[in-house]
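Aim 2, interim progress. The first record below pairs a target sequence with its structure tokens.
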Amino acid sequence: GWTALYLRYNSGLRISMNGRQLARQLQKLVEAWPVPVREIALIGHSMGGLVARSACYAGGKSQLGWTQKVSQVICLGSPHTGAPLARGAHLAANALEVFPLSRPVAKVLNVRSVGIRDLRHGYIADEDWRGRPENALNAEALTPIPRLPGARYHFIGSSFGADEHDLVGKVLGDGLVLLPSATARHLADADTAVLYRAHHMSLLNHPVIYAQIAARLGLRKPPTRRLAPS
């Protein structure tokens, strides 16, 4: 009952810029679709989840019609409040700038795109970064992003840990994103789920995650029976 469409975007751009472009593309898509579009679900992994939320924000501000058709926004391992690995690279670059011998290494680290820099703090709106120092170590409060009124939000994360109390998971998260960032339900009144003993990329093709998505979209479960070779 759903038609799956896939999006490629330029991860070198600001997340908010990608969000605006996606908002415009979705409006064109809905207008050009051969039959009336009844419902839209947005599913994004990692930065893609932030781009999806940013598109909803941009589309809502511009009162684009497609936003009224969004029923589900599902984010998989998205760093809603920032990613420690991105912050670590930023801190390392600042530290290496201090010494002449290490400045060439710092320059290499500073080649990171603005989109990757946005991951440090989970910036998804222009207001998050505009007018603020690019190399600030600490972020100010994120811009409050209203939820689309007709949509349900789902933040699904993963962790190396065996459960929420596991120290490994608390320190390493899923290797890229910590659970409090991936499941920041307060940002969009979202429901959450966690896949334990799993890394960041596991969220892309794990059967448990598929089941979570299928349940939220009202899909039938995939067949478990294996086909015999012909």
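The second target in this work package is listed in the same format:
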Amino acid sequence: MPYDSTVSTGGTDILGAVLRRIAGLTRSVRRRWDAATLPAFASAGRGFEMQLPRSIVNPAAIRLGSDVKLGPGSVLKANTRFPGGWMRHPQGEHVSQTFEPSITIGDRVTATGSLQVVAFDEIVIEDDVMFAANVFVSDGAHGTTTGETPYKFQGITGIAPVRIGRGSWIGQNAVIMPGVSIGELAVIGANSVVTKDVPARSVAVGAPARVVRRWDLTSQRWHAVERDS
């Protein structure tokens, strides 16, 4: 019997359609399951997604805007006490603290995945901020008061609010330290450690991060920044 390409192609098209339909149904079920298993936040706008796996601590202190999308492996922690179970000394030889934290995330904030936002006081992420993968944001740090005691038992120090301005882009593996304010439409380069404020419409890179470019409103162009400035 001669090969009938029409029949073969038709069968392939049907199989492809079936597979696409199954894939679509799988995605729909996964989204519904993700949404159904989310905790009750202080507020959450429509369209919020936080893909599995995920970790959320004290959702009652977390406010979310509309259409926030956080990729897998992300963490939102509004810590009310320290230490947690893993950080406790077996004989109680650790610093104990309580906090009143808040996390506010604006509309249309997106993260590729593994975003960690850890608050002891206040972290604000404004509208349309874009996070690449593996970004860490915290408004507190482990204490280093003494070099004689494991740092995990020294409590949280240097607590200061963090703000990330509207429309900013935070590059892969960036670390945003306590007390930092990043201006709107700023860019933080990959692998940067931000230890001080970054002006609006500027590019900061390095560890510690420094501003290397600024947007000029008059010329409508980026301009390099001299190192000494």
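Residues 5-36 form the longest helix (32 residues). This observation will shape the mutagenesis plan for the next reporting period.
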